[in-house]
Design a protein that fits this description.
two-stranded antiparallel sheet, 73% helix, 1% strand, single chain, 20 helices, membrane, transmembrane helix
Length: 445
């Protein structure tokens, strides 16, 4: 495959993939649930994600020619597990992209109320397909600028917060101050609110593993991947924690609405009238970025899953173009994502939301498999081979244990809310069904 991704591309792919509508639109709900303790939840989840990324990085550097991290899951955990993980990850990203295509259409209606959702979705998919089909660097450049827009919006909020706190600015609900963080209690709803916030916190990190799809197309992966993995989780924690600190220093957490964007609320409270339009542009960019990432990821995953296929369609999807791109797989996955327009008409919204929730919950399974595969990889290395590793997982094996226990803890948290419980059950049914299907298919062959 064509190694056209530079360091800045890979860093912003992972960074942009995790900073999206969960922060710009959904942070209000998380703040209302956990209050200032949400910051602690992000720090704990960030540590687990850092260890996850270090485990992934060590696997990627053991064979930089692997198309995706699914290759390592298959190698160390077995072909059946690899099959389930690969197709689950593919369906997860297609489902997420479908939701984002629909969201992009809704965001455009902010300015053009009569514009049909499918027009925006179709236009977006055509443009992103063309960008993904030119060169891998064209995709990287597109994602770089999408991510920059989101990063600039967050930095502006953080800078605004610092300035307002420094001058003790009077807001509609008081004064901007660090003391707003402890206005009442750090755990206003007790430990239950703090624990329940982990569901939204963890799922806001979905996409961080995308670096695992870039190794075979990255220039000088031995140098770039370690740097990106060390930098990206830290930056994501800083952006999330920094923006949440800014929001709750400007407005006490009690006054941040759970049903609207806290970014819009804060900027409008400061007298910035076009705040809603600005944030709408940012979340439109976030939706386009997520779709762009999904097309890249699903194209590579479909190519990886069909490389050994013997049927006619599989052979076509498992081929590279003369530019070193899986163009056929990219086109097929783009068409699948495009079906969201039809599904919006045929399938009731509640069903589609349930499918999206199941897909998102499945990321816990994918992340856990990455860590378990890493543990198996390290256990089979000799002490001499281990001493030669240039990018070792810190605190191994305790870091792997911590990450796995953290994933189990989040899964337990999902049991205590009806919506997440149903999604968790749906995820288990999907995974078991897929495993049984592969078992039956293997025996029949």
């Amino acid at each position: 495959m064509n190694r056209g991704l530079k360091s800045r591309h890979v860093q912003l792919i992972a960074l942009g993939g995790t900073i999206g509508t969960g922060l710009f639109l959904g942070a209000g709900k998380s703040i209302h649930l956990a209050g200032p303790s949400l910051i602690l939840a992000y720090l704990i989840a960030g540590i687990a994600c850092f260890f996850l990324m270090r485990a992934l990085g060590e696997l990627l550097l053991s064979n930089t020619r692997s198309v995706s991290f699914i290759d390592f899951i298959e190698k160390y955990l077995g072909p059946k597990t690899g099959f389930v993980a690969g197709w689950t990850y593919l369906v997860c990203w297609i489902t997420i992209a479908m939701a984002e295509v629909t969201a992009a259409g809704l965001y455009m209606q902010f300015w053009y109320p009569k514009l049909p959702i499918w027009v925006t979705g179709l236009f977006l998919l055509v443009i992103l397909f063309l960008m993904n089909s030119i060169t891998v660097s064209a995709f990287g450049e597109t994602e770089f600028w999408f991510a920059i827009i989101k990063v600039v919006a967050i930095l502006l909020l953080i800078l605004t917060g610092v300035v307002l706190v420094a001058i003790h600015y009077k807001t509609p609900v008081g004064y901007a101050s660090v003391s707003n963080l402890t206005n009442g209690s750090f755990f206003p709803h007790g430990l239950s609110g703090f624990f329940l916030s982990f569901q939204m916190v963890v799922f806001s990190f979905v996409g961080i593993e995308m670096i695992g799809m870039t190794a075979s197309e990255t220039k000088d992966p031995e140098k770039i991947i370690p740097k990106c993995i060390n930098d990206v989780p830290v930056r994501i924690i800083l952006f999330y924690v920094g923006s949440l600190l800014a929001l709750m220093c400007i407005f006490p957490w009690q006054y941040i609405s759970p049903s609207s964007s806290p970014f819009v609320q804060v900027f409008q409270g400061l007298g910035i009238r076009p705040a809603a339009a600005i944030i709408n542009f940012v979340v439109l960019t976030a939706a386009a970025s997520s779709c762009n990432s999904a097309i890249f990821t699903t194209g590579r995953m479909l190519y990886s899953l069909t490389q050994k296929s013997e049927n006619k369609l599989g052979k076509k999807l498992g081929k590279l173009s003369h530019r070193g791109l899986p163009t056929n797989a990219i086109f097929f996955s783009t068409v699948m994502i495009g079906l969201s327009v039809i599904l919006d008409i045929i399938v009731p919204s509640g069903v589609f939301e349930f499918i999206s929730s199941v897909a998102t919950t499945c990321f816990l399974f994918i992340w856990s498999l990455i860590v378990v595969a890493h543990y198996r990889y390290r256990k089979q290395l000799s002490s001499k081979a281990t001493s030669k590793l240039t990018f070792k997982m810190p605190l191994f094996p305790f870091s792997d244990f911590f990450t796995i226990f953290f994933m189990i803890f989040v899964a337990i948290v999902l049991l205590f809310q009806t919506q997440t419980l149903i999604a968790l059950i749906g995820s288990v049914v999907w995974l078991i069904g897929l495993y049984l299907f592969e078992t039956y298919r293997t025996r029949a062959a």
